Fold:
Amino acid sequence: MSPQRCAVAGVGMSKFQTRRDDLDLGGLYQEGAILALVDAGLTMADIDMVVLAQSPDALHGIGHPEQAAAGALGLHGKPLMRVNTGGATGASAVQAGWWAVASGRSQACLVLGAEKMGDATRGAQEVLNKIWDAAYEAALPLNTIVMCAMQAIRYMDRYGATEEHFALSAARMRTEGARNEHAHLRTPMTVDAVLATPYLAYPTRLAMACPRTTGACAVVLVSEDLARRLSSPLAWVRGFAARANTYFMGDKMGDCGPNDHGLYHDLHLAAASAYAMAGITRPADQLRLVEPYIPFSVMEPAELEALGVCDPGEAPKLTETGHFDHDGPMPCCPSGGTLCANPISVSAMVRVAEAAQQVRGRCGAHQVDGVHTALGAGAGGSVQFFTVGIFSADPDEPCRRHP
Structure:
């Protein structure tokens, strides 16, 4: 049985910022839901299923927030499921919503989540240290900053990338974020300004790292039958795939073949599956843009290569030429990406939502010209969960860069 066609008909995003003292977590759920439903031209009465994207309870200080979400959204008799795959949570939730529609279980699925990390009295990294095995790895000490810095060092050793390459990526994304009305950080930066900020963990500097962000995001996924009756612009889901790996970082060090901590092989595998679903054989030629999950700019080269939009070791040189700029051949994170807003529970949802919004022509000042097919991706856990979604303007036409 072939999956039913599914489209993104509505997207809602908060204006991301450090704190939101005006709304609690339930209020943020409502904000995201209302924005997405209005965009789709629907109401909660039209929704027959909800998928909640919510990362570990310790990040926002509320146990089992799905219980509060059911009441805040007035579900009463409708199904709700919660998804948590760390930083990949938002993309995984959209994938779950797509499964619901593609299987025929849902005709209109609301996928949403929110983050209140700005309210935390202690740093997020203390919570994120709990990702790793308490006996073998957590005490190193590890956090996500160190984890990704270690990945970057392995990539640098393999391909000769430099701090300047990572600074180029950071400066580009900070400048892109200045055009995005939803971004948390909206101040353009130069390469020199990035390199002038202090180290967090070599080679990652402060300006190469994401902020701690509060806000909500929601996506409305609908069946083809309902989509054809709506007046809102659509982004059709052409492929969705995910892969997982061990959380033991030591298993991805040394002589481990393609499963090297510096290479993101599972992202490559997830992308390959999504491409197969979408009929994409030449991603560098058939995708107009990509929105991967890059909370630290040091991750960008390996992610772009894993996605197949350039050859192994080629991304740093292409960064030098502006290849991934907003007006370049393959824009990467024209929204400013996770580097400019990181509400962890929905950061990856924002990536796939941004890809869909580019296809729908809804990105305002950071809209890329002529988008037919776009990719969004999430990453989470101990760099162990990867999810890739592909969206296009028409379900019947081959995926290609331009309409």
Remarks:
- The mean pLDDT is 94.
- DSSP finds 14 helices and eleven strands in the chain.
- The two ends are 29 Å apart (CA to CA).
